[in-house]
Amino acid sequence: MQFKTIKRPIAAGVAAIFLLSACATNPDGSYKMDEKAAGALIGAAAGCAIGAAAKGAQGCVVGAAVGAAAGYLIGWYFESKKLADAQVVNNEYERQIKTSGKGKNKAEPLPKNDVIPAKFETKVNTAPPDNSGQKEIQVTSNTDLVGYGDKVPVVEQKYAIYDEKNNLVEEKTEKVTAVDGAGRYQTNSKFKLPADAKGKKYTVKTTLVADNKTYKENSYKVTVLDGQTLMVAALY
Fold first, then answer.
1. Most exposed: 120, 133, 137, 197, by fewest CB within 10 Å?
2. Of 70, 49, 73, 78, which Cα lies nearest the Cα of 61?
3. What are phi and psi of 10, to 5 degrees?
């Protein structure tokens, strides 16, 4: 099995082409690899292994190049911030409870010892292509957490991107670090589709998880019509 001894250096060499534009210089002179670079490296190693299994060293070179390119397609950015404090949001929901009616129509009271999700909404927008022709997709989510508990829940947002054949292209899980209890929070994330995405359809899913329990999933179908136009449809 000769390819086992050659796949790693060749894959790393091919991936290095992609890494040059994806590494940042730290103040101390060291380098930090961003997620696009890591994706290129992982993709190159995987592509080399598959190619080498079929065609030896030559297959490794081709597979590594393809794998590195695939791993480099999705850029990623994520941030979270707090929009309103616990008192404001809890008061809003307390007023809704008072006006929600009686019996089965009566909303549940806010928890006294917990903080739980009460709303999770997502909007998907687009920005013009960059100089390379890549289309940027922006995902903005708003989350309401309510309750009077002292324990701060661990809130995460999961993202998944699927291609036309429902194959997973990319997935991410990000902790909403701005959460410090009840309140209203906003997360902003963005990623880039490849320049050849024109005419293709992608499914974008975003899920809110609080203390390892899924609260809600939002799903959108994203279709790139041309270089400047993108159609977004909410699935559920």
1. 133
2. 49
3. -70, -45
pLDDT band at 210 (very low <50, low <70, confident <90, very high): very high
Asked if 189 contacts 78 with a C-beta cutoff of 8 angstroms, the reply is yes
Q: Which residues pair with 104 in a beta bridge?
A: none
Backbone angles phi, psi at 171, to 5 degrees: -140, 145
CA dist., res. 94 & res. 206, Å (int): 28
Domain boundaries defined on the chain: 3-71, 76-234
Instruction: Look up the pTM and report it.
Output: 0.67
**Predicted pLDDT at 104:** 66
User: Is the backbone of residue 6 left (phi > 0), alpha (psi -120 to 50) or beta?
Assistant: alpha
Chain Cα centroid distance, residue 222: 15
Distance CA 45, CA 67 (A): 7
Contacts of 17 (CB under 8 A, 6+ apart): 68
Neighbours of 36 (CB within 10 A): 20
CA distances from 49 to 68, 98, 154 (A): 12, 62, 38
CA–chain centroid gap for 150, Å, is 29
Q: What is the pLDDT of residues 162-183, one digit of tens each?
A: 888 889 988 899 999 999 999 9
> Which CATH homologous superfamily contains domain 76-234?
Immunoglobulins (2.60.40.10)
Q: How far apart are the C-alpha atoms of 73 and 70, rounded to whole Å?
A: 5
**DSSP state string for 148-198:** --SSPP-EEEEEEEE-TT--EEEEEEEE-TT--SSEEEEEEEEEEE-GGGT
